[in-house]
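Protein: NAD(P)-dependent alcohol dehydrogenase
Species: Arthrobacter sunyaminii
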Amino acid sequence: MSRTSRTTPNAAPSAPSVSSSAVSPAVPPLAGLPVAAPAVLQTGYGGPEVLRLSEHPLPHLEDTEVLVQVRAAGLARGTWHMMTGKPYLLRAAVGLRRPRQPVMGHNLAGTVAAVGAAVTRFRVGDEAYGIGRGSFAGFSAAPEGKVALKPVGLDFEQAAVVPVAGLTALQALDAAGVAAGMKVLVLGAAGGVGSFAVQMARAAGAEVVGACSAGKAEFVRSLGAAGIIDYAREDFAAAGPRFDAIIDLGGNPSPVRLRRALAPGGTAVLAGGEGGSRLTGSIFERQAAGAVLSLFGNRRLTGLMCRENHKDLERISALIEAGEVVPRIDSRYRLADVAEAMRRLESGGVCGSVVLVP
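Structure follows.
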């Protein structure tokens, strides 16, 4: 595990009061912890108007889970998709009319408040970060295998924006085989995932080119990009084969264009993207097309779905503690201002990540 100091636990503080109706606990309360805490609940699919802050019972703690008192929760693009219920295929997995998990959010950083009977890697008082169930809340339950000790030197807000974005970036670079001396293009370089991908590729010794809007160019250069492509004015594929790896995180480029920009033997990883049909979205459609194109020639296009696991989080922790990766926060919002935070995420103007602070 990554290094961090362990704190001696005191009595867990009570959650701040939120005006709402009284609630009854779904399970017997854990010793020393409140029965309920503030949480962002999703009442259906749509815009920020489907979100409301209310008191909600603490989550049930499984034997293999840790209960985290959330100090900060990061917004991810996947959270926006969960709010809108788009593409519609998503609803088949999470709930047709509304999400089966009523509390929003996955990314978290905080203090371990309780541990399940089978947990061996954590104890009460540890400072942790990772992926939990309903992290936009005072408390969240997280599988032990999806949580790591918080990196030394990071505050809770910085740590909270790492998990999903950092894992996606790391695994995308792994899938592309990024190594020293390679030339790597990151599409969507200024976003939450992109800001990690640029730094991680640079740490691997690659020459990185970031595609972004002109207004975000200086931010992307500050991440370590050697070159910038203004996607509004330049076509990354126009100059022909030149990149050993392409990490596609934003926009909606066709697999044909991605393939055209790859050098012989190169790999494009499709790990994001918007648009496409309402049913499946662009990412699934483009991943399927990329798989077909990969059957011809020596240029490969591959899809990526983030694998949530503590071992990769610990790899990221090592990069952070070595000073090679620094989480970048665009803006901070209170839990009560989650609708405003989601609108900021929707705006397209974000450089780095957005974080909620309960």
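Remarks: The chain has two domains: 36-162+327-357, 165-303.
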